Amino acid sequence: TRFDFSPWHGTIDLVFIDGGHVRTVLESDTAQAFRMIRPGGVILWHDYLQPNCPEVTEFLEELGRTADIRHIRDTQLAVWTGGRRP
């Protein structure tokens, strides 16, 4: 939550989020991901729908109300591939 990602803003093709599983860390990582992602890039979140990670699921379902985030069937992944941002 303290690392300076600004040198990578708008330049990253793929961000894979699998860090802390508490809401504050998820919010921070997700905000940084949306700053870093370039047009056409993809953001993936791990541990979606995992019973031992309820805050991940809760956060992504809430975020999905304002952003185009989808579950990848038969995986623990949620994905954003463009479209509405939070």
Question: TL;DR?
Answer:
Helices cover 28% and strands 24% of the residues. It has 86 residues and is α+β, with helices and mostly antiparallel strands.
Mean pLDDT across all amino acids: 95
* Unreliable parts: none
- Derived from helix and strand composition plus strand pairing, the structural class reads alpha+beta
Let me know the number of strands: 4
Shape: globular
Q: Given the structure, what is the number of helices?
A: 2
Biggest sheet, open or closed, and with what strands and sense?
Answer: 4 strands, mixed
- Kindly provide the radius of gyration, computed on alpha-carbon positions and rounded to a whole number of angstroms: 12 Å
The sequence of SSEs as H and E is: EHEHEE
In the sheet with the most strands, the strands line up as: 1-2-4-3
Distance between the termini: 19 Å
Bin the strand percentage.
Answer: 15-25%
- In percent, how helical is the residue content? 25-40%
Describe the structure.
The longest helix has 14 residues, at 23-36. The radius of gyration is 12 Å and the shape is globular. The two termini are 19 Å apart. Helix 1 (23-36) links the parallel strand 1 (12-17) and strand 2. It is an alpha+beta fold and 86 residues long. The protein has helices at 23-36, 54-63; strands at residues 12-17, 37-45, 69-71, 78-80. The chain has 2 helices and 4 strands. It has a 4-stranded mixed β-sheet with strand order 1-2-4-3, covered by helices on one side.
